[in-house]
Design goal:
Chain lengths: 398, 398
């Protein structure tokens, strides 16, 4: 049965039935005083929920709390703030996260156990709880509040990352919406960044877990901004079932579409980024080797800097794939930059340097490698490395 | 028996007895026309020799050739050029490397099998052999040529990295000299960059191999500039025996001193770097965990950018050690920046922010972490990440 997947115009995390959101400027984020920095996402019907969390050993307090609460496989709301990650804050941080959840639960009238917490921003500072308390009081939830929530999650992001799709398949119709925030300390390790995905489809918990893992593996786990994995990362999927059951194939397909769209948004909006880079590695001995090779190339600061300057220094792509640890045979390698063949059978081809530079100057640059050894294929996304990345990150706290 | 190790003023790779060097401007490096870019290092007595090579799977032609020749455990000379790495150049590249060795062998009057080759620079371009041939003809070897050789190896390096020590222990006296070049595509993986070490001590091949591995593990394997491992890396150690036998302890100690000095020079002179960063991790469960943690922190672009901007964003150090994969317990962590305690028992200490910023503005910044879990301890070196790094690397080829 063919699924019809349509983009919802200006769709976001409240596009699926029964989801409400709202946000406010609580004054947590000192660097963006007019931007909302505290928000709530809520489902009027209790959700089957699952999430993937950071693999960083020093998990932020909201991660510890949300991981614990999701053991029950259900959730009703998430409260999120930017400007302070509540990470490396010890017992006090855990108490702060619990209080945030409790305040939201009381305001909405659900159990505190059903409220998850996410925070992003500076590591090592305590949450300004007075501002959080009065901020939570001020938030008004609405069916159209998804975009405000997206804005509240932004730190150094330059645009809100959100999307939604409507899926029709046979008799069933459901929607999936999503929101994500970048844009530094991002490197694929199981889950990166903050992302909330909502759906009104009715789905079993076990399937939901597997579906999310599979979708994240081809999306968020295939992006890198700077090689640093944050202590706050979380990709959350909440399904409230209001639209009834959904065929699993169609659900998986739509979920991956939403995740890949958001992951590419995050990559494109990496700190200081001026362009999106897409690296595809084919012909690897296995899927795992293709993934590793693509992730290594997308993470190479030298490849990223060369693309930034539209410098056709393709040797750096070869150096990166060579150090990735995957099986490569020089004489079999093929490389395309965009649609221009640059290396074939391990030998550089004569190419039009001016044309190649023109292509590298575009807003999207694709690098395609064929290792010609097997059938493993994977795509990774990232961004160029600019002087601006350094400027942003040398003055983050001061 | 206590060894007396003295720095030789203006010492370099020709300070040990019997070593000769010379260099010329062959015109290989188009970006630095006045600088020598082709050099030869030669020992009048045949050397016991050993080397560590890059772990990159796509090894440059000179690496393939030198690795093969060193199986005999002996060498008499090395020819080195900058400006072109002769990497990813296939069969033609191998032929070019072999021809370089042959020309040098004929000029000096030794067997081509005793000549090693090293190249550094752009990847994927063929060596300009006409310039190499006439360049080799022009080189005049002398006992004082070490410094010219060091200059010939430089690419984006801003200063020549060289040193030598004189060792006296009991009746024996010998010298060890070394030269290294950085300064991009540097990340610890067995061996990084180009480094030649010479000694007039008489040492067995087996000991020489072990001694070099041990010294590189605490020096070149503990530095990172940008996380990229080049296809051209080589650390070579040549011992011509002219000064007679040396006690192994004293030799090891002096060798490590030379290697650590050169490794720190390379770290300090990373592309675009304005300061040296030293990260010490103590109290780890094992030496391996201490090494991994120190290397992860020194490689973090966010830590490097924060140090660049003298931004006391210590949370990034914690995030990096947390993602390193080593065992850490938040409540036991201790961090010093310079001699200022910043975190104790997992909790931030009140600190004088102005004093800390002043300290971070220095040319050398040390970060000391104590995990308080065991006795593993290691030190790693790197540099800050500056806008200049991006500028250099976005215009390397164009």
């Amino acid at each position: 049965m063919e699924a019809k997947i349509e983009l919802i115009p200006e769709g976001n995390v409240t596009s699926p039935e029964g989801f409400f959101a709202g946000a406010t400027s609580a004054g947590i984020n000192r660097r963006a005083k007019d931007k909302p920095d505290l928000g709530i996402l809520f489902s009027e019907a209790s959700c089957v929920a699952t999430a993937l969390f950071t693999t960083n050993r020093l998990k932020a307090a909201p991660v510890v709390l949300s991981q614990q609460r999701l053991k029950q496989g259900r959730a009703g709301a998430v409260v999120v703030n930017s400007g302070c990650a509540n990470a490396f804050t010890g017992e006090k941080g855990l108490a702060h996260a619990a209080e945030m959840a409790k305040l939201v639960a009381e305001g909405i009238g659900i159990s505190a156990e059903d409220v998850l917490v996410a925070s992003t921003g500076v590591i090592g500072l305590p949450l300004p709880m007075k501002r959080i308390r009065s901020g939570i009081d001020q938030i008004i939830l609405s069916r159209g509040g998804g975009h405000e929530l997206a804005r509240a999650m932004m730190t150094t992001d330059t645009f809100a990352k959100e999307t939604a799709v409507k899926v029709g398949v046979g008799d069933s119709e459901f929607a999936i919406g999503g929101v994500a925030k970048g844009s530094g300390m991002i490197h694929p390790e199981l889950a990166t960044l903050l992302c909330f995905i909502t759906t009104d489809a009715a789905v079993e918990k076990d399937f939901l877990q597997k579906a999310l893992k599979k979708a994240v593996d081809v999306s968020f786990n295939m992006i890198s901004i700077d090689g640093d994995t944050s202590p706050s990362d979380m990709v959350l999927l909440m399904a409230n079932g209001l639209a009834g059951s959904a065929p699993t194939d169609a659900f998986q397909q739509a979920l991956e579409r939403v995740c890949i769209y958001l992951a590419k948004c995050v990559a494109r909006d990496g700190e200081g980024a001026t362009k999106l880079i897409e690296v595809t590695v084919g012909g690897a001995l296995s899927l795992a080797e293709a993934r590793l090779a693509a992730r290594t190339v997308i993470s190479s600061p030298l490849v990223k800097a060369a693309v930034h300057g539209a410098d056709p220094n393709w040797g750096r792509v070869m150096a990166a794939v060579g150090r990735s640890g995957v099986e490569v045979v020089e004489a079999k390698l093929e490389l395309y930059i965009g649609d221009i063949p640059v290396v074939k059978a391990g030998a550089p081809l004569p190419f039009n340097k001016r044309g190649l530079i023109q292509l590298l100057k575009g807003k999207e640059v694709s690098l395609s490698l064929n290792l010609n050894l097997g059938s493993g294929k994977a795509t990774a996304w990232g961004c160029d490395l600019s002087e601006e990345y350094v400027t942003i990150n040398s003055q983050y706290m001061t």
